[in-house]
Specification:
two-stranded antiparallel ribbon; 6% helix; 6 strands; mainly beta; single chain
Amino acid sequence: MYFTLILENESGEQVNLSTTANQYMTSKIEGLNPPAGTISTSSYAGMNGSYLNNAFIEKRNVVISFAMRGIGIEKRRH
């Protein structure tokens, strides 16, 4: 197993999706690509290279889709 995936709701109830593979199946993970970023530099006369003014990286959302499997799906969904 390469990862551990635990879902937690507002009440603090947790479901470990990596140990319940027969009930839940991770179907798609999006948002793992590198986020967009902006780098601002300045160059000065008589100097080699450039000076870093600032760097900014955008936020990103990681969306994990999963499917419920097995019996009693409606009960577990609620």
